[in-house]
Amino acid sequence: MPNYKIKPRFVKGVCPNPKGRPKSASKALRQFTAQEVALTINELIQLSVPELRRIAQNPETPAIRALVARTITSGYLRGEWDNFDKVLSRFIGKVPDKIEHAGVGGKDLIPPTFNILPIPPAIKE
User: Fold this and answer.
1) Which residues constitute the domain of residue 51?
2) Considering the entire predicted model, what is its pTM?
């Protein structure tokens, strides 16, 4: 059996990422990105599938347009919109779920189902 030397993944005493984790984008940049994605989606959602494929396959297409075009095309062809939903929630934000905590007219949503009645004594004197 041959004796192979395995190169270690990390070298002791050497930091694999000396600059650390990259800082997150500023809030203004994230808002611009959300706006840009929203405009791109509004524009591309109106195109036909062959036009979307041509945009996605063109190497000169900006990355955001190619990503959205690919996501719309694959979702349409497969009938699965999970990836498109992920792109929307990643850039634009998740739509908050609204939960109603009161019934119609502000009344209790679930009426009380039990009454507290006095318990009669078990033994009569």
Assistant:
1) 27-93
2) 0.48
